[in-house]
Amino acid sequence: MNTWQAPQRPNAYAEKTLIAAILDGTFPPGTTLPAERSLAIQLGVTRPTLREAIQRLARDGWLTVHQGKPTAVNDFWQEGGLNVLSALVQHSQHLPPNFVSQLLEVRLNLAPAYTRAAVENNAADVSTILANCESLQNTAEAYAAFDWQLHRGLSFASGNPIYTLILNGFGDIYEQFARLYFISSEAQDKSRRFYAALCEAANRSDVERAGQICKEAMLESIEMWRQVDVYRKGKP
User: Which domain does 64 fall in, by range?
Assistant: First the structure.
């Protein structure tokens, strides 16, 4: 039996199609979009629908709308916000080769900070989250899901919702690549040791130790990903 899915709304379709066209070079940064009437015909949508999609993309930083002038395509890496990041991870075929490494470097800067804050503000919640790692199955899927829930849980417990918003920006891609990372039993072992050490620090409410443990684990994950990525690219 097929699962019923609601049809895609015309404005969502137009928005997604325009993003894909920007990413695949049909409308590269530095160019302008075709005239509204022509573009609406190309997309098969009404002009009001197209305008709504363009306004949303302009809000997120993909486009700049000038009254009476063609709509400009922005350099979204410079002009975009969190919504651009969310859109990029939904078009993973267009991501640059070093995108995951760069995300891990961002996590290296963020994770120790929200981990320290989480242990300082709510060590009991951190201990509760980490206690679940004892029953983790030795599968890439289980580790990927737990790791994502851990980092989101730490961001919640930190008391700063901005951390959670940033993490949510690449939530769609996190588990996808984490499953590749955790195929390695070495990666699983390193993470299990990280979880256990962090749990101990949380139980002692040792804020600085928790931050240091997290920083060391994030550095290890960058090195491990490089090894996984080299192996993945070398496969036939």
Answer: 10-79
With a CB cutoff of 8 Å and minimum separation 6, the contacts of 152 are 164, 167, 168, 171
Write down which residue in 22, 53, 79 finishes a domain. Answer: 79
Q: Is pTM, for the whole model, over 0.90?
A: no
The Cα–Cα gap between 126 and 156 comes to: 10
In angstroms, what is the C-alpha Rg of the chain?
A: 21
Residue 42 has pLDDT above 70, yes or no: yes
Which letter does DSSP use for residue 32 in this model? B
Query: Which amino acid would we find at residue 54?
Result: I
pLDDT > 70 fraction of the chain, expressed in percent and rounded: 93
The number of domains in the chain is 2
How far is the C-alpha of 210 from the C-alpha of 118, rounded, in Å?
9
Residue 67 sits in the same domain as residue 166: no
In angstroms, the CA 176 to CA 114 distance is 23
| Parallel, antiparallel or unpaired: strands 63-64 and 72-73 | antiparallel
Q: What is the CATH number of the domain that holds 209?
A: 1.20.120.530
